[in-house]
Structure formats: structure tokens, C-alpha cells
């Protein structure tokens, strides 16, 4: 059995980690931290998990990172907070999976520019997108779990960028559910503001732009430029991403699907659709990323992906990374279908 702890267990991704890990046959949950809820049963906050046997006697603990000893520690904490916790864990005999953006950039200057905060210092970390970096994840001490939008976008674009058949400018449009904003309500997420509404935000300045761009650049000989715009939509979970690219050579839909199938042939969580269209109910609660591709007579390829932001976009992907780090089957604890309709 692997001992696992969660720092920041009272939030949305913390709750999802508990849901997935409590069904994982090779995991024992040790500590789940919260600053405010010391001694409170975890199922009092995460009510969907009531009665789940391994969680029944588990309570939140307000303990510092130096007191956490486990094989794996998940940090489900906000950016700016993880960078204060991870260095302490890094000194210990634990392996870390950080869900925040703090260790996703090799270049700290880019991080500081886009996040607007000073970093506490670089540590060796592997960008935790298993379909692209599986080999390095196996050996990693610290995994920087990707952002939710970058997960859907990078998986959608990698095969074409790697084949070097797309023009440099890539336009990406995403729609996200409100749980992406975390558990604390804001004016924007207040029900009358978001209900029956669609709100574009950070239209040309979202911090996931450089994250997507740096990963795609690594795969390409060209100077890839990403133009990304997110929209908040009145749903709880899910990210639907549409990318528009122009192909450098004539290639039909079947040819494109062939490229995707070949690229993702070893990846159980990638589903390539030929006829169906990805939808959010089709991935809700799952670790799948569903992908569809169309191309028009002007060499414009329109690519669509769907993920659950809290699963493949965060906690599920974190557990997938843990499975790889521990040498387990990647699907362990994650092999379940969606909730459609
Ligand atoms: N929500 C999503 O869809 C996704 C989120 N992420 C990232 O995952 C991380 C967690 O997100 P999410 O679960 O949504 O966030 P929430 O706001 O829902 O939860 C954050 C958690 O962090 C804890 N926390 C906050 N500040 C501190 C602090 N100073 N010290 C210790 N613990 C602290 C809170 O616990 P308490 O107040 O009880 O101590 C809470 O449990 C973030 O970095 C987010 O960007 C990544 C991909 C997708
Ligand atoms: C709806 C909403 O507000 N979404 C968040 C998603 C970011 C997130 O979860 O952050 P990381 O993936 O970088 O950790 C946002 O746009 O900032």
C-alpha cells in the first residue's frame, strides 16, 4: 500500500482527490490538512463521500508540512501557497504532486510576469502531462500537475504540432464550468451573475496562455504563438475547448484522425471520435479527454476537446501521475465512465 496525504483537502480538488483515492485499491490516506477545520470529519465537508468506509474516521488536521510523512503528498493549494509548502516537503523523503501553477514553468521570469507574484525559488519538477512526459514522471520527485485549460488544449494540439503541419498562430477558445474557480464564491460566480449567462474573461491575458505555448514550443521547430480566450459558462464541471489551426499541407479528416490515433495509441484516457462530438456530460466525473477533428476546404482544422476540469484537469490527472510514479497501472482507481445524460 502507498501512503498518501493531501494538503488543502477542504477545497474542490481536495474533495475530488478523496473521492478517487478512497476507491483506489493500493492507497491508504494518512493526513488531509485544513487550516480552519482541524478535527472536523472530512465527510462533513465533502458530503458526497458520506458512508465511504475508508473515509469514515478521517478528520482534517491543521498540521505543517514538516510533520507530514507519506510516500506521496498532493498539494491542492492555491498558487503562491504551494511554493511556500513544497520546499519543506522537497527536503523530506516524500514525492510531491502539486496541483497549482507554481512549478509548471522552467523559466521563473515567465511565471512571475504572468502570475504577478515573486517566486520563492526554482526546484526540479516534471510537467505532469502523462501522455507527453510519461518517462520523466516515473522518476520525478516533484510533479507539477498541469492547469485545467492547458490539459485540454495541449492534448488537443500536440499531435499536429509534433508533425509540424500547422501554421504558427493557434487560436484557442475554451468554456469552463464554475468549479474551476475553486470553492470560495466571488461576484462573478454569484448565481444571478452566472446563471443563464456566458462571461468571457482575461480575453487576451489569461495565465494559461504561456503554459500552453511553452509546452507546444518544445514539440515544434516553429515559433508557435497561442491566442487563448476562456469563457465562464453556467455549469459546475467541465472544459470544452475549440482550437482553430491552419494546415501547412492538404490533409483530409481521415488523415488527421490517423495521426491522432497513432500518437495516442498507448494512452487509455484519450478517446478520439470519428463521428461523435465531444460533450461535457460524456466526460463528467471521468479522467477521459475526448477529441474530435474536422477540416474544411481552406485547410482550417477545427479541433475540439472535452475534459472534466476537476478530474483530467486536476485530481484525476494527479492520481494518474501517482500511478506512473509508483509503477502501478495508469488506470488504477480511475477506470470509470461518465454520467451522461
Ligand atoms: N478547480 C479546478 O478546476 C482546478 C484547480 N487547480 C489548482 O488546484 C489548486 C486547488 O484548487 P481548488 O481545489 O479549486 O481550490 P479551493 O479554493 O477549492 O481549495 C483550496 C484549498 O487550499 C487550502 N488553502 C488555502 N490557502 C492556504 C494556505 N495559505 N495554507 C494552506 N492551505 C491553504 C484551503 O484550505 P483551508 O482554507 O481549509 O485551510 C483549501 O482546502 C489551485 O492551485 C488551483 O489553481 C488546477 C486545475 C483545476
Ligand atoms: C473558472 C475559473 O476561474 N477557472 C480558473 C482556472 C484556473 C485554475 O484552476 O488554475 P490552474 O489550472 O492554473 O491551477 C481561472 O481561469 O483562473
Automatic annotation (TrEMBL):
Catalytic-site annotation from UniProt: 148
A GO term for molecular function = NADP+ binding
SUPFAM superfamilies according to UniProt: Glyceraldehyde-3-phosphate dehydrogenase-like, C-terminal domain, NAD(P)-binding Rossmann-fold domains
Question: What is one process in the GO biological process aspect for this record?
Answer: L-arginine biosynthetic process
Top-level lineage group: Archaea
Which EC number(s) does UniProt give? Answer: 1.2.1.38
Subcellular localization, as worded in the UniProt entry:
Cytoplasm
Q: Name one GO cellular component term.
A: cytoplasm
Q: In which pathway does it act?
A: Amino-acid biosynthesis; L-arginine biosynthesis; N(2)-acetyl-L-ornithine from L-glutamate: step 3/4
Domain Semialdehyde dehydrogenase NAD-binding: start-end pairs: 3-140
CDD domains linked to this entry:
AGPR_1_C (cd23934), AGPR_1_N (cd17895)
Q: Which reaction does it catalyse?
A: N-acetyl-L-glutamate 5-semialdehyde + phosphate + NADP(+) = N-acetyl-L-glutamyl 5-phosphate + NADPH + H(+)
* Family matches, as InterPro entries: AGPR, AGPR_AS, AGPR_dimerisation_dom, AGPR_type-1, NAD(P)-bd_dom_sf, Semialdehyde_DH_NAD-bd
One short Pfam family name for this protein? Semialdhyde_dh
Which key words are in the record?
Amino-acid biosynthesis, Arginine biosynthesis, Cytoplasm, NADP, Oxidoreductase
Q: What does this protein do?
A: Catalyzes the NADPH-dependent reduction of N-acetyl-5-glutamyl phosphate to yield N-acetyl-L-glutamate 5-semialdehyde.
> What's the family?
Belongs to the NAGSA dehydrogenase family. Type 1 subfamily.
Q: Which PANTHER family match?
A: N-ACETYL-GAMMA-GLUTAMYL-PHOSPHATE REDUCTASE, CHLOROPLASTIC-RELATED, N-ACETYL-GAMMA-GLUTAMYL-PHOSPHATE REDUCTASE, CHLOROPLASTIC-RELATED-RELATED
Q: What is this protein called?
A: N-acetyl-gamma-glutamyl-phosphate reductase
Q: Say which species the protein is native to.
A: Methanofervidicoccus abyssi
Tell me what gene encodes this: argC
Amino acid at each position: 500500500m502507498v501512503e498518501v496525504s493531501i494538503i488543502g483537502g477542504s477545497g474542490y480538488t481536495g474533495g475530488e482527490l478523496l473521492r478517487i483515492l478512497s476507491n483506489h485499491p493500493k492507497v491508504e490516506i494518512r493526513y488531509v490538512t485544513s487550516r480552519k477545520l482541524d478535527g472536523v470529519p472530512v465527510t462533513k465537508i465533502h458530503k458526497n463521500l458520506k458512508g465511504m468506509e475508508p473515509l469514515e474516521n478521517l478528520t482534517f488536521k491543521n498540521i505543517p508540512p514538516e510533520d507530514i510523512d507519506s510516500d506521496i503528498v498532493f498539494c491542492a493549494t492555491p498558487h503562491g501557497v504551494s511554493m511556500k509548502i513544497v520546499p519543506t516537503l522537497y527536503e523530506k523523503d516524500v514525492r510531491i504532486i502539486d496541483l497549482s501553477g507554481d512549478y509548471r514553468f522552467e523559466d521563473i521570469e515567465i511565471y512571475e510576469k504572468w502570475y504577478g507574484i515573486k517566486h520563492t525559488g526554482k526546484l526540479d519538477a516534471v510537467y505532469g502531462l502523462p501522455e507527453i512526459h510519461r518517462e520523466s514522471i516515473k522518476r520525478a520527485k516533484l510533479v507539477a500537475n498541469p492547469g485545467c485549460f492547458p490539459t485540454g488544449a495541449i492534448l488537443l494540439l500536440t499531435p499536429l504540432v509534433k508533425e509540424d503541419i500547422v501554421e504558427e498562430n493557434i487560436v484557442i477558445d475554451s468554456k469552463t464550468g464554475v468549479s474551476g474557480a475553486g470553492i470560495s464564491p466571488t461576484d462573478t460566480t454569484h448565481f444571478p451573475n452566472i446563471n443563464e449567462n456566458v462571461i468571457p474573461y482575461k480575453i487576451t491575458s489569461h495565465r494559461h496562455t504561456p503554459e500552453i505555448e511553452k509546452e507546444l514550443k518544445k514539440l515544434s521547430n516553429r515559433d508557435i504563438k497561442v491566442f487563448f480566450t476562456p469563457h465562464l459558462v453556467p455549469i459546475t464541471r467541465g472544459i470544452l475547448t475549440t482550437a482553430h489551426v491552419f494546415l501547412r499541407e492538404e490533409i483530409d479528416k481521415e488523415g488527421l484522425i490517423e495521426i491522432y490515433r497513432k500518437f495516442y495509441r498507448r494512452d487509455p484516457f484519450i478517446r478520439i471520435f470519428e463521428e461523435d462530438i465531444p460533450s461535457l456530460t460524456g466526460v463528467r466525473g471521468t479522467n477521459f479527454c475526448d477529441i474530435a477533428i474536422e477540416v474544411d476546404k481552406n485547410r482550417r482544422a477545427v479541433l475540439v476537446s472535452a475534459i472534466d476540469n476537476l478530474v483530467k484537469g486536476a485530481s484525476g490527472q494527479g492520481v494518474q501521475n501517482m500511478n506512473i510514479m509508483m509503477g502501478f497501472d495508469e488506470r488504477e482507481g480511475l477506470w470509470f465512465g461518465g454520467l451522461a445524460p
